[in-house]
Design a protein that fits this description.
By secondary structure, the chain is mostly helical. About 80% of the residues lie in helices and about 0% in strands.
């Protein structure tokens, strides 16, 4: 009885966060979204269609640092942030990211004139630095969501704030940046000026999140010494393994779609005003994500987190396939499609992160060790490696195999029918099927949601 009462006291202390604290910390997601979107949406297109680098080479030179170095940086930050959390609070990593973000953004796009070898070497080195900066704030930021509250319901609300600001990041990055590039002339300098602005926005968002995190007491850290074998222990958590497998499928699919989006609008939809339309389509997606995030909180309370994920992921996959089948339809059809895509993406994206936070919290309670950094490092590696594999190797390989002509792209000449089919395959069909597979995986192997009872005092207890 005393143990139960003490647990309720601890839970009550870790619940009921102020709205301004949730919102302020959620703003940090803007930086995470912009860091994810800039290379995923723009870099491959920039290197091929603006600089004229062959797609497979451009994809490979992004993929290697994003996966190999990105994984190493994530592991290091995750383990170090666990081990030294008492000396260097997780929120301070956000400050490091805020200082270095603009330099990382600019470095990846300020590719100098010269031989293709020089350009590829520049991208390789500058993008490695980019991934290091991304790790300094993305891993500790995600880890803190599992430490801010012990209420599963409140963790879903926190993820709704995070996902809402994902919409803001989409609005600024996927919508605003292409439009700004278009109005600045669409050349190299247009990309560099636009990316510089994005870098400053990242700094501001991380500073706000860092300040808001200071209002939350740091959780006592009980992780063991800094050893790589400690990281492997997270894979003994069956729920976490299932979530990771679904995340691998989803992030590869997301990377494929993101990297193909500009190609899809330009060549499959045959839009001369492609970057303006990308701005409009991304604005629609951003608004729907922001509006839809709170809705999925209530859907999850009604259906449960597992069923909500299955429903949203399945609908997302079917909508993508439908969009690909009718790519040449009038533009208003595309507006409807991206609105539905954003709605369903908001659902499964919010829920999967809420399930991740639940798994981290459950592990902490059962094992008595706070390994939020290790869990978050593995998750971050999956997200970055999956998006890199899908958005560089897969897309670059498909475009090269189906005959995408970079010289024609630079001159504004239409692509062959085979190349357009490859673009549609990349943007719609492959990611659509992948989302159906991820939904099936969760349905078959993830244990059902635990029963949750909300007490009169607002404390959440597992039954």
């Amino acid at each position: 009885m005393k143990v139960f009462q003490s647990k309720k006291v601890e839970l009550s202390q870790r619940s009921g966060l102020a709205v301004q604290t949730k919102a302020g910390f959620g703003i940090g997601q803007i930086a995470g979204q912009l860091f994810r979107d800039a290379p995923s949406l723009l870099l491959l297109f920039y290197l091929t269609s603006i600089l004229g680098i062959e797609p497979a080479l451009a994809g490979a030179v992004i993929f290697i640092p994003k996966v190999l170095f990105g994984a190493g940086f994530d592991l290091t930050v995750g383990l170090v942030s666990d081990r030294y959390a008492a000396r260097f609070a997780r929120r301070r990593w956000l400050l490091v990211g805020a200082v270095t973000a603009p330099f990382a953004m600019l470095g990846a796009f300020t590719v100098p004139e010269g031989s293709q070898f020089l350009q590829l070497a520049w991208v390789f080195i500058s993008f490695s630095f980019y991934m290091a900066v991304f790790s300094t704030f993305s891993v500790p930021y995600l880890a803190q969501f599992a430490e801010m509250t012990d209420s599963p319901a409140e963790r879903t609300e926190l993820m709704a704030w995070k996902h809402g600001f994902t919409g803001v990041g989409i609005l600024l990055g996927s919508a605003g940046t292409p439009v700004l590039i278009h109005f600045l002339g669409g050349g190299r300098s247009a990309y560099i000026w636009s990316i510089g602005v994005i870098g400053l926005i990242c700094s501001a968002a991380l500073l706000i999140a860092w300040h808001s995190a200071g209002k939350i007491p740091d959780r006592k850290n009980s992780a063991r010494p800094l050893e790589l074998k400690e990281l492997l222990k997270v894979f003994s958590d069956r729920r976490f393994v299932i979530l990771c497998l679904s995340a691998i499928i989803m992030t590869v699919a997301a990377g494929i779609s993101y990297a193909s989006f500009a190609f899809f609008v330009t060549f499959a939809m045959e839009r001369n005003d492609a970057f303006v339309q990308i701005g409009i389509l991304s604005t629609i997606m951003a608004i729907v994500v922001m509006v839809g995030a709170p809705t999925w909180v209530y859907v999850a309370k009604w259906l449960g987190k597992k069923r909500t994920y299955i429903f949203a992921a399945t609908c997302h996959g079917l909508t993508l396939i439908c969009f690909g089948m009718f790519a040449d339809s009038p533009v208003y059809f595309a507006y409807i499609m991206v609105g539905l895509l954003a709605l369903f993406n908001s659902g499964w994206g919010l829920i999967i992160l809420s399930l991740l936070s639940d798994a981290i919290a459950r592990s902490r309670e059962e094992r008595g060790e706070n390994r939020a950094g290790a869990y978050s490092a593995v998750w971050s590696i999956i997200e970055k490696a999956g998006i890199a594999a899908g958005g560089t190797l897969v897309v670059g390989g498909i475009l090269s195999y189906t005959g995408f002509d970079t010289e024609s792209a630079k001159q504004g000449i239409a692509q062959s029918a085979e190349a357009i089919q490859g673009i549609v395959l990349s943007y719609a069909y492959l990611p659509g099927v992948a989302k159906l597979v991820a939904a099936l995986l969760i349905w078959m192997f993830l244990p059902d949601d635990e029963q949750i009872i909300e007490g009169a005092d607002g404390v959440t207890d597992d039954v």
